[in-house]
Automatic annotation (TrEMBL):
This is DUF2461 domain-containing protein. It comes from Croceitalea rosinachiae. It comes from the Bacteria. InterPro entries: CHP02453, UCP028451. The lineage of its organism: Bacteria, Pseudomonadati, Bacteroidota, Flavobacteriia, Flavobacteriales.
Length: 226
């Protein structure tokens, strides 16, 4: 059965898991977890279905609840949230969508959070030459109302090979080019949450179109894909 809402019972389970984050408790309640997981996966499937009405999604990846604690100071074995990402289809479509469901800390994110070295250099070179289209999109009133400000890690001064006094250095310094929108529990558990998520993802499209154009061409505007 298709699930178009996030159930309060799933959030209640996550709250209990955060308080009882140990293997013994989880083993006792694993049957309930599996039920909530099935419901949540169905909701993510609904998000993907909506996305495919205005984009083309290649894959939905649901992240495991089990934490990799090998290199972490936090040794709790489970994540107290559900999360999934949506990959756009085809070499000509760049960027991705992400949704995390967690009591008091639900958010969606989109953009470029881990660009490879070549993509990052290409974006920076474009911004060095002309950042006007980029700035026009991210400063649009409706865009900012939905997504706020550009976020992501940045280098402290300037990347190697770039002038630290360049007028666009605030953008060139970026290592990530992402946008994040947070939601209250009341918003998440409302009947309208699916539409809010989908409308937010729709609003990012001008940004994706520009970045996809940049990443599939060279500085002369020549296509890099067959």
């Amino acid at each position: 059965m298709v699930n178009t809402t996030v159930k309060k019972e799933a959030f209640d389970f996550l709250k209990k898991l955060e308080t009882n984050n140990n293997r013994e408790w989880f083993a006792e309640h694993k049957d309930k977890y599996k039920l909530h997981e099935t419901d949540v996966k169905s909701f993510y499937g609904s998000v993907m279905e909506h996305l495919n009405k205005h984009d083309q999604i290649e894959k939905l990846k649901m992240f495991r609840i089990y934490r990799d604690v090998r290199f972490s100071k936090d040794k709790t074995p489970y994540k107290s949230h559900f999360a999934g990402s949506f990959s756009r289809a085809g070499a000509e479509r760049r960027g991705g969508y992400y949704l995390r469901l967690k009591p008091s800390e639900t958010f969606i994110a989109t953009g470029f959070w881990d660009p490879n070295k070549e993509d990052l250099h290409r974006i920076r070179k474009e911004l060095e030459v002309d950042a006007s289209n980029f700035r026009k999109i991210i400063s649009n009133t409706d865009f900012k109302k939905t997504w706020g400000e550009l976020q992501g890690d940045a280098v402290k001064t300037a990347p190697k090979g770039f002038d630290k006094e360049h007028q666009e250095i605030d953008l060139i310094r970026q290592k990530q080019f992402i946008f994040v929108r947070n939601f209250s529990d009341k918003e998440v558990l409302s009947k309208d949450f699916l539409n809010q998520v989908d409308n937010s993802f729709k609003a990012i499209r001008p940004y994706f179109d520009l970045m996809s154009s940049i990443l599939t061409t060279n500085l002369n505007g020549e296509s890099l894909i067959g």
